[in-house]
Amino acid sequence: MVRTGSVTGPTLAVVAREAGVSVPTASKVVNGREDVAPETRRRVTEALDRLGYVRRPRFEASKPPGLVDLVVHSLESSRSGAVLHGVEGAAHDAGLEVVVSAGLTRTRGGRPERDWLDKLTTRGSAGVLFNLAELTPSQYAWLAQHRIPFVMIDPVLEPPPGVVSVGAANWQGGVLATEHLLSLGHERIAVIGGFRRKMCGSARVAGYRSALASAGIRHRPEYVRYGGFSETGAHRRMRELLDLPEPPTAVFVCSDRMALGAYQTLSERELSVPDDVSVIGFDDLPESRWATPALTTVRQPLSEMAATALRLLVRMMAGEQPEGTRTELSTRLVERASTGPAQSGRRAAGSLRGRPPR
Fold first, then answer.
1. DSSP element (H, E) containing 164
2. How far apart are CA 4 and CA 19, in angstroms?
3. What is the pLDDT of residue 60?
4. Which of 37, 44, 95, 324 is the most buried (most CB within 10 A)?
5. 118 SS3 class
6. CA–CA dist 207, 174 (Å, integer)
């Protein structure tokens, strides 16, 4: 449904005149129709943005919508599987269907493409869930302009004010992981974080630092490394830690996937987990149980986070506004076989410190 006039903004006829197209063509662009030439779509879209045109909401609050979109970072990880499981269950309870997309459309020629946004209107999606997404200012503006409700699941960057998001208590999880290692007598505790400036990674490292400070243990800058949430990155950072003059006896690795990279380095150095070095991860993905030894980790409730986000989205689609913009679910320690007493880690600081891989 296209707005034809309003005292609060331009009419569609004004937009069409500004873009040099007919009103029916401008209407096709606004409603996400695909039978419009790319150059024409670009001109109309720029006119919409420039004039501040705002669409009327396409869904009546009294009529429950039947379709929502879920945009995930990737479909190749078990993490995404947990998110899908949570959304599917909550959507079933709400009588909704879910369309899943992997990743957002990249920029082309310096201009954000809008294909995936236009498709939301084409198929009549009532709202969107974004998981681990980094939206551009233009994409945020498009969603606001078209009044499409959306919720961020575990956003990578701090969302703009007013954006609703659901995540885990990452700072608390960093504290839990570090306190567990402290309780085992470790003092030389390192951390391999994800990305230095991104929300979950920085919060987990901040929790680690806070737990050390509370225990009266001096923070060692050389014990803080960042592996970019990849196995390869963690493998390299673990190698750097072992090459220090006084290597750590325990490492908090800020994702289960990275912990597997740390395991690989320790195996190459012929060091045992946890007899030489204790390792603790974060996520509690299936891989953490399959690893050898099974990985002690901090569980973030991914399925519960996704289900909570879907329920919030349903309320927003019905015209309600959540009381707060940020919802955090608790994390908890899952103790397995990869952590042990500190006294058994002394060997790592001795003769095996510099042993190269075979």
1. none
2. 16
3. 45
4. 44
5. helix
6. 4
DSSP string, 25-69: HHHHHHTT-S-S-HHHHHHHHHHHHHHT--PPPSS-TTS---EEE
Residue 38 contacts residue 118 (beta carbons within 8 Å): no
Which segments of the chain have a pLDDT < 70? 1-9, 31-34, 54-65, 103-115, 344-358
Task: Give dist(CA 85, CA 307) in Å, integer.
Answer: 8
Closest by Cα among 173, 184, 123 to 330: 173
**Do the bridges between strand 332-334 and strand 296-299 make them parallel or antiparallel, or are there none, so unpaired?**
antiparallel
- Per-residue pLDDT, 115: 64
Distance (Å, rounded) from C-alpha 269 to C-alpha 320?
A: 56
Rounded to whole angstroms, how far apart are CA atoms 20 and 29? 13
* Helix/strand/coil for 241: helix
Helix (H) or strand (E) segment spanning residue 78: helix 78-94
Give the model's pLDDT for residue 232: 97
- Residue 341 tokens, joined: 């007493």
Please tell me the distance from the alpha carbon of residue 140 to that of residue 153, in angstroms, as a whole number.
Answer: 15
Contact assessment for residue 152 and residue 133, using Cβ atoms and an 8 Å cutoff: yes
Each residue's pLDDT tens digit, 180-224:
999 999 999 999 999 998 899 999 999 999 999 999 999 899 999
CA distances from 317 to 43, 57, 108, 126, 311 (A): 30, 10, 31, 7, 10
What the block records as the tokens of 52 is 């501040």
- Do the Cβ atoms of 241 and 248 come closer than 8 Å? yes
Cβ contacts of 296 within 8 Å, gap of 6 or more: 180, 278, 279, 280, 281, 333, 334, 335, 336, 337, 338, 339
Question: How high is the pLDDT of residue 262?
Answer: 98
Please choose, from the candidates 176, 215, 173, 180, the residue with its C-alpha nearest in 3D space to the C-alpha of residue 194. 173
Give the pLDDT confidence of 128-151 residue by residue, as tens digits.
999 988 888 888 888 888 889 999
Distance (Å, rounded) from C-alpha 103 to C-alpha 106? 9
What is the model's pTM?
Answer: 0.79
Determine whether 185 is exposed, middle or buried from the number of CB atoms within 10 Å of its CB (0-12, 13-18, 19+): middle
